[in-house]
Specification:
Elements lengths: L1 H10 L6 H10 L8 H15 L6 H9 L7 H12 L1 H12 L5 E3 H11 L6 H18 L2 E5 L2 E4 L6 H13 L11 H4 L5 H13 L4 E5 L2 E5 L14
Antiparallel strand pairs: 1-3, 2-3, 4-5
Helix pairs in contact: 4-5, 4-9, 5-6, 5-8, 5-9, 7-8, 9-11
């Protein structure tokens, strides 16, 4: 639902509260849904994937970093969706294990979800899940041109915003230093270590975070990312 959340973020002010997002979808119908039930359903899914609440640091910091995003805005939003949806995080591993340049189609996503959740759903639900997963990773930027019934696996577009946000998510989980580059969300960027560190250093020079790298030692800091009542998930 990248298109929907992109529209919503364009019409709701950056300093708005959670109620403003609800009003934009349900009352103002900024997403142009034909019925009230469609608006309710859309808002439910958007809130599940993206929170739409500045009191939740995952959403608040994504929204703040979005102003620094260029071609990586979709990946930035995708990282938030993956942080909030376990099935997306689990499926990411399959996507990343597919070599860049290989074909990846809906059938592979269906095979994956059947293995991930064997016997839990009907055949029609497994097909529905596979369509949604296939579309999600296309929208996040992991799939490119269509080749028959599949798409080419590509590297997503990364930038200083998505690199900073991925590092923040892994830092929240208790990681630090050079090992943070092996964190779940940092690996999602699909970057080589030299390119990854270079982007973090650029982000540091732009003031997005504190970053220092010398002699194989990486130090990262996230001043202002958390409020006084918020803490890292793992001390």
């Amino acid at each position: 639902m990248i298109d929907e959340v992109t529209i919503l973020l364009s019409v709701v002010p950056a300093d708005a509260d959670a109620q403003a997002y609800r009003q934009a979808v349900l009352e103002d119908n900024q997403l142009h849904k034909k019925t009230a039930s469609n608006r309710e359903k859309t808002f439910k899914y958007l809130r599940r994937l993206y929170s739409l609440d500045p009191q939740v640091c995952l959403f608040r910091e994504m929204r703040r970093l979005l102003q620094f995003a260029a071609d990586d805005s979709k990946l930035l939003m995708g990282l938030l969706a993956m942080a909030r949806e376990p099935v997306l995080r689990a499926c990411l591993d399959m996507v990343l294990k597919t070599p860049v340049g290989d074909s990846l189609g809906r059938a592979q996503f269906e095979a994956w979800i059947r293995t991930h959740a064997p016997g839990q759903y009907s055949d029609s639900m497994f097909r529905s899940f596979s369509h949604n997963l296939y579309a999600s990773f296309y929208q996040f930027g992991y799939l490119g041109k269509a080749v028959g019934k599949a798409r080419t696996r590509i590297r997503p577009e990364s930038g200083i915003a998505s690199v900073t946000y991925a590092a923040f998510l892994d830092w929240l989980g208790g990681m630090s230093g050079i090992s943070l580059l092996q964190g779940e969300y940092s690996l999602a960027l699909d970057l080589g270590s030299d390119e990854h560190i270079a982007l973090l250093q650029t982000a540091g020079r732009r003031g997005l975070l504190k970053a220092a790298y010398s002699g194989g030692v990486l130090e990262l800091g996230f001043p202002g990312f958390l409020k006084n009542n918020e803490t890292r998930l793992i001390p």
